[in-house]
Amino acid sequence: MENQKTNLQGKVAFITGANRAIGLETARGLAKLGATVIIGARDTEKGEAAAESLRVEGLAAEFLLNDLKRPEDDQTAYDYIANRHGKLDILVNNAGIMVEAPSASDIGENETSKLPMEQLRETFDINFFAQVRLTQALLPLIHKSASGRIVNLSSVLGSLTLHANPASPIYSLKAFAYNATKTALNAFTVHLAHELRDTTIKVNSAHPGWVQSELGGKLAPLGIEDGSLTSILLATLPDDGPTGGFFHMGEALPW
Fold it and tell me: Where is coiled-coil annotated (predicted)?
C-alpha cells in the first residue's frame, strides 16, 4: 500500500485528542501536506496552545473544543465545520483512554474476572461509543468531500487472532477493557466500510505501533512521529487504496 496523494491543499482534517502525542503529530503531518487541520481537544488552553504551535510553523491549524464525554460536542463540531468549511475530508478518531494501567508498559496479570464494570463502561464510552457517535454525526460532511477518509485509531491489542495465539508477542497483554474496545472499534471499521463501499469514502483502522506517549509508556520503542505515520498514510490514501482494513505502516494486521 503506497500513498501517492501528497498534496492536501483545500482539504480539511479533524483529529480528536490532538493537543499532544500521536494526535498532534498526525495533525502536523497532515498540515505539512497542505491540509487545514482542526485540533480537537477537551482542554481549551492545551488545545489552543497545540494549534498555535502549528501556526508558528506556518501551518493552517484551528482549535475546536471537543470532549468525547459530552454528546452535545458532536453537534458543536458539525456546526463549526459546516459553517466554516462546508465539508470534512478527513476524520481521525484518535482520542482514547486506558483505565486499567497507567500505560501499556504497566499491563500486569490478567484480571479479567475482577475488572470493575465501571472501568469497562468508562473505557467503552470513550474508546467505542463516542467514536461511533461522532463519526455518525460528521458523516454528512464527509459525504460532501470528493474523497473522504475515516481513520479509527485502534491497536494491535484489539486483534483476537493474536490474543488467541500463545506464540504472539501480545499474548500476555490482557487488558480486557482496553483490548475489547479496540476489537469493537475494528468491527465498526469493517461494518461502516461495507456500508460506504459504493462511495468515495474509505474507512480503515490504524495500529500506530508501541509509541513513547503517555498511553504507550517510556519503554515503547517508537517515537511520537513514527506513531503518526500510519494514521497519515490512511488519511491520504489514493482513490484505489484499501477500505475496511487494519494496518500498521502499510502492512495488514490480523483481526
Answer: none
How far is 71 from 123, CA to CA, in rounded Å?
Answer: 15
pLDDT tens readout for residues 182-239 = 999 999 999 999 999 999 999 999 999 765 555 655 555 556 678 899 999 999 999 9
Confidence of residue 4 (pLDDT cuts 50, 70, 90): very low
Answer whether residue 5 is part of any domain.
no
Count how many residues are written for the chain: 255
Task: Report residue 94 CA to chain centroid gap.
Answer: 3
The C-alpha cell at 41 is: 481537544
**Whole-Å CA distances, 181 to 8, 111, 178, 185:** 31, 16, 5, 6
> Angle at Cα 93 formed by Cα 90 and Cα 94, nearest 5°?
115
Quote the pLDDT of residue 123. 97
What pLDDT is recorded for position 216? 52
Q: For residue 66, what is the domain's CATH number?
A: 3.40.50.720
What total number of domains does the chain contain?
Answer: 1
Domain for residue 133, yes or no?
yes
Strand partners, 132: none
Q: Would you call 147 helix, strand, or coil by DSSP? A: coil
Grouping H, G, I as helix, E, B as strand and the rest as coil, residue 93 is: strand
Q: How far apart are the C-alpha atoms of 179 and 177, rounded to whole Å?
A: 6
The helix/strand/coil state of 162 is: helix
Is 4 among the domain residues? Answer: no
Quote the pLDDT of residue 100.
85
For the chain, the 3-state helix, strand and coil shares in percent, each to the nearest 5, are: 45, 15, 45
Domain ranges, residue 129: 12-252
User: Which are the catalytic amino acids?
Assistant: 178
